[in-house]
Amino acid sequence: MALYGLQFANYVLPILVLPYLTRVLGVAGFGAFSIFFALIQYALIVVDFGFNFSATARIAAHREEHSVVAETFAAVIVLRVVFAVVATLLVFGCLYLFGQLKFLTTLAVMLSTLAWCLGTAVFPTWLFQGVERMGFVVLFNLASKASSTALIFLLVRRSDDLPKVIAIYGLSGLFAGVVAFLYGRRLVGAFQWPSLAHLWRELKLGWPMFFTSLSSVVLTNSGVILAGLFLPAAVVGGYAATERLAKAANTMFQPITQAIFPRISGVMAASLSAGIRLALRFAKPALLGVILVAATLMIFRVQIVAAFAGVAYIAYATALLPLGLWFIFGVVNNFAGIQVLTAAGRAHVYSRAFAVSGIIALAFTFLSLAHIGYMAIPVGILLGEVLLSVLLLPRVYTLWLAASNTSHREAR
Q1: CA 98 to chain centroid
Q2: Positive or negative CA dihedral for 141, 145, 150, 152?
Q3: Which residues contact 263 (CB under 8 A, 6 or more apart)?
Q4: pLDDT at 191
Q5: Residue 269 has pLDDT above 80, yes or no
Q6: What is the mean pLDDT of residues 302-329?
Q7: Whole-angstrom Cα distance, residue 329 to residue 290?
Q8: Contacts of 247 (CB under 8 A, 6+ apart)
Q9: How many CB atoms lie within 10 A of CB 394?
C-alpha cells in the first residue's frame, strides 16, 4: 500500500493537473511542455543510474548489517547528486536544439531544472524500499505533490506560464527530497563520505539497470523529442496528451512490480525455480488487469481523450490503439526482464535485449516521421516492446527449464 501511495503522489497527482495544463497552455504550449518533460526523463534516468534496483536489492539483502546499509546510502547519494548537476547542464544545453524551447533558456529555468534533479537525487526511495519503511515518506510526498498541484491551479493562468510550471515541480521536488534525505539519514546514522572503492562498486552494480532504464526512456520518450525536432509544437502537444493517458495507466501497475521485486529477489537467491514460480504467480492477475485497462483505452479512446485533454486533442486519439498494445507488452517484458532475469542475476541479458529493441524502434520512428507523421511514435514504441518480448521470452523459458531440471536432480 505504501508504494501505491508513493506512486499516487509521484504520478497520479501530476496527471490530474494535466487536463488543466492542456487547456491553459494550449496545444502548442503543451507541446513545448511535453518536449521539456521528455528531456527531464532522460535527466532523471542519469540521476538514478539504476540505483533504484541495485541499491534496493543490496540493502534488502543486508538490511541487518548496519555498516553495509550506511555505506550504500552514502555512496549512492553522493553519486546521484553529482549526476544531478551533470544532467541539469545536459538538459539546459539541449534546449537550444528546439526552436519551441528557446524561451526557456533562462537562469530561472536552469535553477528550477537543477532543483528538480537534486530533489530526485536525494530522495532515497531505494533505501526505504530495502528496509521496508515507506509510510512516513509516502505521507510527506503526498502532501508535497498536493501542494504543487494546488500551486499550478493558483499560479498558472496563461499559455506563456510554462516556466512557472517547471519552477513549481522543481522546488516542490527539492523540498520533498531534502526531507526524505534527512529521514533516511536518521535511519542509517551519521553520514560518512564514501571511499572511491565504494563509489566504484555502486557504479558497477547500477550500470546494467542504468543501461536498461536508459534504453526504456529511449524507447518511450525519444519519439516526442524527435517529433519536437521535425514536427510543429501543436502536433507534438496533441500526440503527447494522448500518450500521457497510456502512461498514466501504466503507472497503476508500477507499484505492484516495485513491491514484489525485493521478495522475488530474496526467493530467487535461495531457489531459482521457486523464484520463477513466484514471479509467474504474480504475473497472471497483473496481466489480466492490464488487458482490461488497455481494452478500455482502445475501445473508448475518443471519449477518454475528449474528457481528459479536451476536444482540441480528439484528432490524436488514434494513437491509443498502438499504445494500448504497448501497455500490455510492456508489463509482459517487466515480468520477463526484471522480475525473472534481473532477479536471477541476469540483468545483462535484459540490458542487451532492451538496447537492441530500443535502437530498432528509434530508427523506425526517425525514418517513418516524414511518412506517417506523429503515428510513427506510438507504432515505434509498440514495435520496440514486441521485439523485446521476442528476445526475452525464449531466455526466460530456457532459464525455467534449467531451474526445473536442477530442482528435480536435487529432489532425488
Answers
A1: 23
A2: positive
A3: 278
A4: 76
A5: no
A6: 92
A7: 10
A8: 220
A9: 11
Written as one letter, the residue type at 394 is: P
- Check: CB of residue 125 under 8 Å from CB of residue 137: yes
CA angle 25, 29, 31 (to 5 degrees): 125
- The CA distances from residue 24 to 138, 164, 234, in Å, are 30, 13, 14
pLDDT digits (tens, 9 = 90+) for 9-29: 556 666 778 889 989 998 888
C-alpha–C-alpha distance, residues 35 and 143, integer Å = 27
Q: Tell me, what amino acid is at 178?
A: V
Q: How far is CA 298 from CA 304, 321, 411, in A?
A: 9, 5, 48
The distance in angstroms from the start CA to the end CA of the chain is 41
CA distance 105 to 402: 55
Q: Answer yes or no: are the C-beta atoms of 239 and 227 closer than 8 Å.
A: yes
Count CA atoms within 13 Å of residue 345 on its CB side.
Answer: 8
pLDDT in tens, 155-214: 999 888 999 999 999 998 898 889 888 888 888 877 778 888 888 888 888 887 787 777
Q: Contact 308/243 with Cβ under 8 angstroms?
A: no
> Residues, the chain, total?
412
In 3D, which of 347, 324, 320, 325 has the Cα closest to residue 336?
Answer: 347
Q: Cell 520533498, residue? A: 176
Q: What type of residue is 189?
A: G
